[in-house]
Amino acid sequence: MHPMVKPALRRAWRERHTVQFGVTPAHAVSIGPVDTATGSLLELLDGTRGIELLSREARAMGLPDGLAETLVRRLTAAGLIDDATLGGPAADALRGRKGALDRLRPDAASLSVVDREPGGGMRRLAARRAVRVQVRGAGRVGASVAALLSAAGVGGGEVLDGGCTEPGDVAPGGLPAGAVGERRDLAARRLVRRAAPTRPPRSAPGGAADASGEPGLALVLVCPRDGLGAYVPDPALSADWVAGGVPHLYAGVVEATGVVGPLVLPGGTACAGCLELGRTDRDPDGPRLLAQWRSGGRRVPVPACDLSLASTVAGLAAAHALSFLDGELPLTAGARWETSLPLLDWRRETLTPHPRCPCGSHRKTEGEDTPDTPEVSGRMAG
To answer: Which of 27, 29, 151, 375 has minimal Cβ neighbours within 10 Å of its Cβ?
Structure first.
């Protein structure tokens, strides 16, 4: 082990005998009491020394035997130690791709803060390369989401959409102006390739494979160009994902409102069918309205999609997707977030599984045997 204090966490003395690692309350940790000599030993935890060398240098500084080991154990237990040599074979392979790693170093630093284990940040980052995701929609939101996931190291990204790129699809983080007139799906795939820091592995290690031999979908992101499909999703379009146990996340902009969520975990959280049934319970006229909204003859000629709002939604959707792919359970699981122009106040709506929905997620609240889903709570600052 070559321990180092996580460099992403800024270090400062609160007073003479207490050191604070980190700035924000979400990740800051204070350690004390720490005397001046032990504080000097902290400077040696930079990843260039193994435990034996650290022990020798500590003794040379006049520190007691075993202090270096005790300090490392203490900092490790507090989630403050990283190790540039750990993370497993996939992490080692990523370290061997210097150009790609240089692109991803800020992401690795962020993940080192999130993951308490030494080498955990690199392990998570390297695992993204073998993940297969699908983005449905290549408009201002969907194309930007696909590019963000690719740039963050997700190796198996594909984008599905129809038609040709229109001027209104162009966005700074999405499809470029040069793609106007080209097929949306092809233009989006080129965008994903250009954003990628490295090519994905030919055969992804781990994960269940589908009939084609490819790894199974870890996540589908539903980002329709007309945000109505994200705000009031059609259960028929997600029926196969629910039946096949494929997690899926909705995101889009409708009129002047952005929505991210829900993240549907089939059998564990509310799905599009639950949303539609719940909406009908609250508003008996809902089915009539939905039928008119979804009717081809009732669609607006140019769906409203503010560029800055679309970029905000895309960034938040990508962040929630990455959190889920990295093994966490973001607050879109069983809920969705909305914000509207011009005030941009974020609102969280908790979504309840519906007892008449065939997805079966309601059985969890009744104590029947369904996939375990951690409780979700909290709020997000606007």
So the answer is: 375
